[in-house]
Amino acid sequence: MRTQTEMALAEADAALMLIDARAGITPLDAAFADVLRRGAIPVILVANKCEGRSGEAGLLEAYALGLGDPAPISAEHGEGLGHLFEALAPLMPEPAEKRRRRTRRRGSEDYHDIGGGRDDSDESTGRGTGEAADHDQRPMRLAVVGRPNVGKSTLINRLLGVERLLTGPEAGITRDAIAVAWTHAGRTIELVDTAGLRRKANVTGRLEALAGADARRAVRFAHVVVVTLDATAGLEKQDLTIARMVVEEGRALIIAANKWDLVADPGAALRAIDERLETSLPQVRGVPVVRLSALTGRRADRLMPAVLAAYDGWNRRIPTPRLNRWLEEIQQRHQPPLADGQRIRLRYLTQVKARPPTFVLFASRIRSLPEAYQRYLINGLRDAFGFAGLPIRLHLRTGKNPYVAPNRGRGDR
Ligand code: GDP
User: Fold this and answer.
1) Can you give the pTM of this predicted structure?
2) 45 Cβ inside 6 Å of ligand 1
3) Where are the alpha helices (DSSP H) in 89-228?
4) 2-11 and 95-106 helices cross at what angle (nearest 10)?
5) Within 10 A of 120 (CB to CB), how many other CB atoms are there?
6) pLDDT at 325 over 80
7) In this predicted model, what pLDDT tens digit does every residue of 137-161 receive, in sequence order?
8) Distance 161 CA to ligand 1 centre (A)
9) Ligand 1 centroid to 221 CA: how many Å?
10) Is 209 in contact with 201 (CB distance < 8 Å)?
């Protein structure tokens, strides 16, 4: 716990030290206070469980820790959070600046080299379609999920270049998803570190059950999710369940086929994974599969370029005129079917948002547009605009182009 605390402090801009005011000050509190007093960052002492009058005695004792006035709160009842916020507010620098500072301090230079300048590697090409990507300034959030023992911790440690993830038998050390940040190819990446990484926990059965909920939490939090497999076992049912969840949540999916060093017949193994993806995950064609060995490091430098490429696609916005030229072409190639004896006419397509790419299609009699044709459109979009392997959402609306006055033509711009 001490190591974990010191690592956390080394990366933090401020610390909240919590005590249980009902229990009063314990020797362990005093020990932590010592560490904090010697540290370089501001500390706010927080006395929790102060609802009612239950915490009064502990609140007074807390002064003895030498960390200044304790802020009385009740986390459970939501009391005192305003005071806490006030205490924190002056410590908050301008966010972008803060991030830059923090990542510089972390500076895992080893890692910085991985994949740096290698953006021409196979997985990352073919997407340079030149559209605007609405990157905001927030860092990309990455999660590495997968069944126990597939090598997630090994992979993450290789990516970070340091023994960064602590796993241990003590309950509660990495209970909650926390993020570590680092820079790669000039971008800030936040890595979600989930409880699924606690491989050494004592009760394995319980851990496996937890991993499901943890995985979902990590997936929700992330932008890009690396589903890690043990390549010697192939793509198993549980892996597919996780992959499906990633797609349902609208996140960008990458498959890391780990332990490739142990694969006897690489050709057959890759084919098996590809085929499984095609039959079991047809809704996202072209999911990148990166074969690598986290243990030996072989091909590990392929992962981040694939991640960044997927993130770019996930953020990409296609200009409406291009989309509508494409819509004309694709209808000519393969006409929509008849509905009530009349041909369905697709009138207008626009991308209403990214992250994940989301489109609205306007058409006459759209309710009759068969699923197969919708899939044809989605796959067409994927191929034409570099959304391979990404979830695409297509909403259907009856009618014409809503952005054109009703008596001014039919929505062609
Ligand atoms: P996690 O439970 O998914 O975090 O898995 P770990 O990272 O703890 O790895 C489980 C075991 O697989 C460890 O013994 C690792 O050394 C081993 N391992 C991880 N990656 C590889 C790899 O690429 N090749 C081989 N041969 N073993 C690996």
Assistant:
1) 0.64
2) no
3) 95-106, 109-112, 152-160, 204-221
4) 130
5) 8
6) yes
7) 578 899 988 888 888 888 888 887 7
8) 16
9) 24
10) no
**Cα separation, 350 vs 28, whole angstroms:** 59
Burial of 129 (0-12, 13-18, 19+ CB in 10 A): middle
Q: Whose CA is nearest to atom 20 of ligand 1?
A: 151
For the record, the structure tokens of 83 come out as 């005071």
Which of 238, 290, 295, 296 to probe ligand 1 with, by most ligand atoms within 8 A of CB? Answer: 295
Query: Using a 6 Å cutoff on CB, does residue 229 contact ligand 1?
Result: no
Between the ranges 81-95, 164-178, 351-365, where is the mean pLDDT highest? 351-365
262 lines ligand 1 (CB under 6 A): yes
The token pair at 334 is 């393969």
Q: Assess whether the C-beta atom of 339 lies below 6 angstroms from ligand 1.
A: no
Q: Is the CB of 226 under 6 A from ligand 1?
A: no
Q: Give the SS3 label for residue 260.
A: helix
CA of residue 252 to ligand 1 center, whole Å: 24
Q: Looking at this protein, which amino acid is placed at residue 18?
A: L
Instruction: Find the radius of gyration of the CA atoms of the chain.
Output: 26
Q: Take residue 50 and report the two structure tokens written for it.
A: 């102060």
Distance between CA 257 and CA 154 in Å, rounded? 13
- Each residue of 9-49: pLDDT tens digit? 777 888 999 999 999 899 989 988 988 888 778 899 999 99
> Both tokens of residue 370?
């068969």
The overall longest dimension of the chain from CA atoms, in Å, is 85
Ligand 1 centroid to Cα of residue 258, in Å, is: 8
Positive or negative torsion for Cα 46, 52, 56, 57: negative
Torsions phi, psi for 54 (to 5 deg): -65, -20
Residue tagged 């009759």 (tokens): 368
Q: Is 259 in the pocket of ligand 1 (CB under 6 A)?
A: yes
Q: What is the pLDDT of residue 230?
A: 95
Q: Mean pLDDT across the chain, nearest whole number?
A: 78
Of 272, 306, 300, nearest to 288 by C-alpha is 306
Query: Please, are residues 390 and 131 in contact by the beta-carbon 8 Å criterion?
Result: no
